[in-house]
Amino acid sequence: MRYVYGITSALLVGGTALALVTQSPVGAQVAQNERSEIAKVVPRSGAPESFADLVEQLQPAVVNISTKQEVTLGVRLNPFAGTREPITQEQQGGGSGFLISDDGYIVTNNHVITGGPRGEQVNEVTVTLTNQKEYRAKIVGRDATSDLALLKIDAKGLPFVKFGDSNKARVGDWVVAIGNPLGLGSTVTAGIISAVQRNIGNNGPYDRYIQTDTAINRGNSGGPLFDLEGNVVGITNMLISPVGANIGVNFAIPADAAIPVIEALKAGERPQRGYLGIGIVPVTEDYAAALGLPKDRGEMIQRVEEGEAADKAGLKRGDVVTSVNGKEVTPQQTLSYLIANVKPGTRIPIEIIRDGKAMTLNAVVGTRPTEEELAGSSFDPEEEQTMPEDPKGSADQAVQDELGMAVQTLTPEIAGSIGVQRGTKGLVIAAVGSSSDAGSKGLRRGDVILSINRTPVTTAEGLAKGVADAKKAGRTAVLLEILRRGQPPAFIPIRIDGE
Question: Does residue 221 have an active-site annotation?
């Protein structure tokens, strides 16, 4: 279970899709939450005398998930061999999940099956059913943006449940959560829906939750939230608490937001989301006063990415977007949320205010990049950055050891943020050791390496190979071609081993 001290944020996908499980053929196993079965245990709407019969029907489809992950904590020098060795540690984690088919597909949260400092996929996932049978699970797919993942175990004839229509969920409805909080297997809690379509203030594209007072804690993550008809209306995801434990303010990903993501993962595809390519801020009271506009209506464009949908549509910095595809932009219905839920390739009207005048522009919505690509677009060359203690791989380790720097592939987004041509190919320096030769010669974060020994380079592996080739040739230095914003490229010799 993810939890936050005070109010923080999560980015979740919105939108709707077709039902995940279709009608079973005659003779096939029936879902545990089939309406006809649930009607026997919950005969009418409202609070039942007991949840026991409902839970007995649903509980077998909820699973416990445990994970193992080998995490690199840093590196150490072996004084006998004169080499650097990684310091690793096995970390264990886990959470909850639920079966959505009788052949072993399981839904859970992405953060349940990730570990390490960069959210790497865990090495091993074990699923335990309520009958205590254990299975090694395969990770079919995971989506960090929506915090959803799909697993598969090799088994048949399993109990399973179906998604319901979370758009029909109402504030005050009874809901039941089943999961594995705090290592206590298959625990049941009940409560009501406190809010629907809850925006917790992150201004993100998927900031929409079902809020419930149903008691959930660490380990409940990925478990189902059922209505009294036995439908999965939400996937337990997060709690807000000043103490890190349940205080009755808990959140679940709505089923209607989860279904299209799960369908895409099951098909081996990446979920597609709309994208304009702009940086935005809400029109707060101060912005409204400066612009002569009503507060809390619309969002101002601070940045327009070259060549993206907004740029092609003619949107400019300083424009205030008030409506998208006929829907008003408000704090509860943010621009990011509205655009993310438009199918890429769709042409939509965008209403703006520019220099006090209302205008309507039309944009063909693009495809939202991955979270990793978006993170790259916010690369700040002025940010203080120390050398990483846990390089991503052997090539990164070699570059750090031999040249005294950390690098990453230059993307068009990073190129734009550091002020070089978006089509530039190379490596951007992420950090430089202060005592390294590179550091003493003035190389710094944000510089671009175009080539090594006059051979173009775009990956850490290519840079490491250039160093290795130089060492084989008996050289003690390599020649790097460096590009810095506002200056022509220059060749700089850097001694090998970073000394």
Answer: yes
